[in-house]
Design goal:
The chain is mainly α. It contains four helices and three strands. The chain has a three-stranded antiparallel β-sheet, with no helix packed on it.
């Protein structure tokens, strides 16, 4: 029996009427190669047509089915780097969003700081008036 990363082996019965079970638990399931996934955005990439024409114009000996299989395999190898490059856009988008959020926070801080500065400035003028200094000739002399 095989349950992914856990494997049970039933051993032969010994003297007892029960058969022992040997259970092996692997920390990592056996690795299989990842299936190739073609992102649709690759079709719009300028290098896609070049890679496709180079691979498809290649000569392969054998039956038609073998030729097709070989060319598709070669195309997969040619597109792997391009596919990885296109998949890395999620990281770039995440970084751009973080930068944008930081910029928005900085703008909000600047705005609030400006408001705070105006309020404090206005409060300081009120303190001058409350303190007894009026805008008179004696005060300006």
């Amino acid at each position: 029996m095989d349950y992914g990363h856990v494997e049970a082996t039933f051993l032969n019965r010994g003297v007892c009427t029960h058969s022992p079970i040997l259970i092996q638990v692997n920390t990592r399931p056996p690795s299989r190669p990842k299936p190739f996934r073609l992102f649709k955005t690759i079709l719009d990439h300028p290098d896609f047509s070049r890679i496709l024409s180079v691979v498809w114009s290649g000569k392969v000996a054998g039956t038609r089915m073998f030729q097709l299989w070989s060319k598709l395999k070669a195309l997969k190898m040619g597109l792997k780097d391009l596919n990885a490059y296109m998949a890395s856009y999620t990281h770039e988008i995440h970084h751009a969003r973080q930068s944008l959020e930081e910029q928005m926070v900085l703008n909000e801080i600047r705005k609030c700081s400006g408001v705070e500065e105006h309020v404090l400035k206005q409060k300081s003028r009120v303190n001058w008036t409350v303190g007894g200094e009026e805008n008179t000739k004696y005060f300006h002399a």
